[in-house]
Write a structure and sequence with these properties.
By secondary structure, the chain is of the alpha+beta class. It has helices at about 5-10, 40-60, 65-95, 105, 135-140, 150-155, 195-215, 220-259; strands at about 25-30, 35, 110-115, 125-135, 165-170, 175-180, 190, 195. The N and C termini lie far apart (about 70 Å).
Length: about 260
């Protein structure tokens, strides 16, 4: 479940300017009830910057079948539980370090594909992760023969290199989430055994997120991803050691052969 500190923080912050103004000074969007604003100005700015589209996609489609409507309502409940954690994972998964171009936020998108579980489950267990990856924007439209509803709108919406993009695919529908990134300093400066932590995180986050979604617990993700990164670190370190040992053995072989 979402921690009390995270839940409290999300209720105190304006979805547009990201200022902590307190829950009493925020008002929810009357249509989707998913975002909060501290002023009419912030509401107008967010609406013009893209909430107009994402708000419409957040509303259940009246033309959809009853089963689809039920699935979309359940998905919004699931997303309310996972939204903050996915946003945090997204920023780290981009791995904004020296090894990637500075405009990576503008050229790539965090894609999370979900599928509905068969049977009746509470919202937190209603979906499972199909796959997840950081994908070049240009490749997203090429993934489908029939472009899902809302995907072209997302593709045409460009917001520069200081806005992170999340694309959630579920049941032929697309849910886009955007959030501004004010500080673009690399999150992963340290390394283990010469292995950059950002690279370990890139490999570990999809498996860790899948496991956390399977048990319906966002708070379990941090411990799971640390374990995955530790295991990857050990595996890569062993491979480096083996490569080093093989190199020394080859040198010994050639040295003895030349005598």
């Amino acid at each position: 479940m979402v921690s009390k500190s995270e839940a409290k923080r999300s209720k105190n912050i304006c979805s547009c300017c990201q200022k902590n103004v307190g829950a009493a000074n925020l008002k929810k969007c009357s249509k989707c009830n998913l975002v909060r604003y501290c002023s009419r100005e912030c509401q107008k700015q967010a609406w013009n910057l893209g909430h107009k589209k994402s708000c419409a996609r957040a509303m259940p489609n009246s033309a959809a079948s009853p089963d689809m409507q039920e699935m979309l309502v359940m998905f919004e409940k699931w997303l309310k539980l996972w939204r903050m954690k996915i946003s945090s994972i997204c920023f780290k998964a981009y791995n904004l370090s020296a090894q990637y171009p500075k405009d990576r936020l503008a050229t790539h998108v965090f894609v999370l594909a979900l599928k509905e579980r068969s049977g009746k489950f509470p919202a937190k267990l209603s979906f499972e992760m199909d796959w997840g990856a950081i994908v070049p924007r240009e490749e997203v439209l090429e993934m489908w023969d029939d472009i899902p509803s809302g995907l072209q709108d997302w593709y045409d919406d460009r917001r520069g290199d200081k806005t992170a993009q999340i694309l959630i695919l579920i049941g032929g529908h697309v849910r886009s989430i955007w959030f501004s990134v004010r500080e673009l300093e690399p999150l992963f400066a340290q390394s283990y055994f010469g292995i950059h932590m950002g690279l370990l995180y890139e490999e570990a986050w999809p498996r860790a997120l899948r496991k956390a979604i399977d048990i319906g617990n966002p708070e379990a993700y941090s411990e799971i991803v640390e374990t995955e990164m530790f295991l990857l670190d050990l595996m890569m370190a062993d491979e480096l050691t083996l490569d080093s040992d093989d190199s020394e053995s080859d040198d010994d072989y050639y040295d003895s052969d030349s005598e």
